[in-house]
């Protein structure tokens, strides 16, 4: 039950009936009455409250009632939205929880009302439609995203070792880091294993460092030693070699599977999970779509859900490819609103078509403009991909497919077309998603419209890549890249779910909001000036907010329960300390989350 401490008015109400009487019998009767009143009170009013904004700054993302003064919450549900007076008169005439509620409300002198600051706004709980939950926690152990050089990376690893005596004293302990990006360093060349032996503190240790896009791994000489003989070629991957054919220490895409990094045990998963959940709630996230959960993660989350220990709603995309040959649908359980709070859902799978643009791994229809010897990497052959997607569709799994390059998108649209058109599939029931949906030929953009496939996009990828994307792609192909406004306009159901891909990008959804609406670096500039990079592809603020709420809910089959402040839906909402829907772009990023509420309960901050 909800704690009665939430409601400050409670004790004064309870005093009268609990006042002791003189005789023993009436004392018992009094106790019975008191218990009954407490029970009724708890049932009827304790978990009922209103949140109001005198400036009507509650953005509901409900088209029938987009901006309101108040939201009435009971338990985990939104009961009503609108003007304070209207809500009061509606609830007086159509009692929500019966006559007793009305009586108690009268005794109690009306509702508990939280008035948010007139400058603040209330929006539905934010979703991240594409993220990597445990990897974020892992990255926070040794974050490298802001490293400015190889020397800087080495320095950070040294500090990490010195801060962890258990690692310092055990040279066999693996060191894992994440976030390096050679495109930010002078020279922009891939680093090498030898770099990680330059410092005596690092020398001889197994070190494995993930590139910011998680599509390349940089390892130390000790790891190369542990790996022993390597295959000459890896399908869908690449072992970078020097002039005489020796591996340099960089493994791209499928070749990363060769690195014998130990699996995370439950204790480490729990640590990473806690780190991520704290950060997520602090940034207003109430739903996260995990964009690749192997069976061991799913078991971990399942246990957490059963214990009632999921602070956030999780929508997992299962992936058992690493431990399987061929079709692996049987290894992904189906869980709908599962667990003590009903916060876990597993009904989708994640497939990978190609690599990423930063490491020239995105599969292109024609060679890279800045590296004509390659057109990128197809990680899963089109034949195998086709057979997998067909089987996942037949088995009723939503099928979410990583596609960055125009060739990856082309190949996957061929397959989806053969199912949607060729087999007359029910797209509304299946809701296949293309994750990233980053680069399309102009003809394939039209097929997105025809097929109604969901484009699941990450606006911060546009702003992170805009310094080099046109160099990689050239002036023609760039027109079909990061084309978020076009993708939204083409969506027959008007849906464009937005995510961050954290830890590839920041976990802060306001950065995604800013990138979507401004297409600027955080300092207000862009390769096309202060008006934004390809500004015609900017989203409006209303479109971006809907992408982070209702569209993400649709993409996870929960649009009837989540994504807008609508009576009957779950009471997930966020209070922001300023109005991101109207303030200048530059003021969006300093915005703070005052409160994150999930299932009607404050999970971060205060109302
Ligand atoms: C398609 O699926 C949706 C959602 O499951 C369902 O409501 C609809 O009736 C289905 N349409 C057809 C034609 O089967
Ligand atoms: Zn991802």
TrEMBL record:
It comes from the Eukaryota. InterPro entries: Amidohydro_3, Metal-dep_hydrolase_composite, Metal_Hydrolase, YtcJ-like. Residues 121-604 form the Amidohydrolase domain. Residues 1-23 are annotated as: Disordered. GO terms for molecular function: hydrolase activity, acting on carbon-nitrogen (but not peptide) bonds. This is Amidohydrolase family-domain-containing protein. It comes from Collybia nuda. The lineage of its organism: Eukaryota, Fungi, Dikarya, Basidiomycota, Agaricomycotina.
């Amino acid at each position: 039950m909800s704690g009665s401490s939430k409601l400050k008015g409670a004790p004064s109400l309870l005093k009268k009936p609990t006042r002791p009487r003189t005789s023993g019998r009436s004392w018992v009767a009094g106790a019975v009455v008191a218990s009954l009143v407490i029970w009724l009170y708890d049932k009827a009013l304790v978990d009922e409250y209103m949140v109001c904004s005198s400036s009507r700054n509650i953005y509901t993302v409900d088209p029938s009632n987009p901006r309101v003064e108040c939201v009435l919450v009971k338990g985990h549900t939104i009961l009503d939205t609108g003007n304070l007076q209207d809500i009061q008169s509606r609830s007086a005439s159509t009692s929500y929880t019966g006559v007793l509620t009305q009586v108690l409300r009268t005794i109690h002198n009306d509702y508990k009302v939280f008035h948010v600051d007139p400058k603040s706004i209330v929006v539905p709980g934010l979703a991240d439609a594409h993220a990597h939950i445990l990897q974020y926690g892992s990255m926070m152990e040794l974050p490298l995203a802001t490293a400015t050089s190889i020397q800087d990376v080495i320095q950070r690893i040294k500090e990490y070792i010195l801060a962890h005596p258990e690692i310092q004293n055990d040279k066999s302990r693996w060191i894992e880091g994440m976030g390096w990006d050679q495109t930010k360093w002078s020279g922009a060349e891939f680093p090498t294993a030898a770099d990680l032996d330059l410092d005596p503190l690092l020398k001889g240790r197994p070190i494995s460092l993930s590139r910011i896009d998680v599509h390349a791994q940089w390892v130390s000489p000790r790891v190369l030693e542990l790996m022993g003989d390597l295959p000459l070629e890896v399908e869908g991957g690449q072992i970078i070699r020097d002039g005489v054919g020796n591996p340099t220490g960089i493994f791209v895409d499928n070749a990363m599977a060769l690195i014998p990094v130990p699996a995370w045990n439950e204790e480490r998963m729990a640590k990473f999970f806690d780190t991520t959940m704290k950060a997520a709630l602090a940034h207003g996230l109430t739903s996260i779509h995990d964009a690749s959960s192997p069976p061991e993660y799913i078991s971990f989350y399942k246990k957490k859900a059963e214990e009632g220990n999921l602070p956030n709603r999780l929508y997992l995309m299962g992936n058992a490819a690493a431990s399987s040959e061929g079709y692996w649908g049987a290894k992904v359980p189906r869980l709908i609103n599962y667990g003590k709070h009903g916060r876990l859902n597993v009904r989708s799978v994640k497939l990978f078509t190609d690599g990423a643009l930063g490491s020239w791994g995105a599969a292109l229809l024609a060679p890279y403009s800045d590296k004509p010897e390659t057109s990128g990497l197809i990680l899963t052959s089109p034949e195998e991909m086709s057979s997998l997607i067909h089987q996942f569709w037949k088995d009723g799994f939503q099928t979410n497919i990583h596609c960055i390059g125009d060739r990856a998108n082309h190949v996957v649209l061929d397959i989806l077309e053969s199912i949607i058109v060729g087999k007359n599939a029910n797209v509304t029931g299946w809701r296949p998603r293309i994750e990233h949906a980053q680069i399309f030929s102009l003809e394939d953009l039209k097929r997105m419209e025809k097929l109604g496939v969901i484009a699941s996009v990450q606006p911060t990828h546009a702003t992170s890549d805009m310094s080099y994307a046109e160099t990689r792609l050239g002036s023609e192909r760039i027109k079909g890249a990061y084309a978020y406004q076009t993708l939204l306009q083409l969506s027959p159901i008007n849906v464009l779910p937005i995510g961050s891909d954290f830890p590839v990008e920041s976990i802060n959804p306001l950065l995604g909001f800013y990138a979507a609406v401004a297409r600027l670096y955080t300092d207000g500039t862009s390769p096309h000036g202060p008006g934004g990079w390809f500004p015609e592809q900017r989203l409006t603020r209303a479109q971006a907010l809907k992408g982070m709420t209702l569209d993400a809910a649709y993409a996870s089959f929960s649009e009837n329960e989540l994504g807008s402040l609508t009576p009957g839906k779950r009471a997930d909402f966020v209070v922001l300390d300023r109005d991101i829907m109207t303030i200048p772009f530059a003021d969006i990023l300093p915005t703070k989350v005052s409160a994150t509420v999930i299932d009607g309960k404050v999970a971060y901050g205060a109302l």
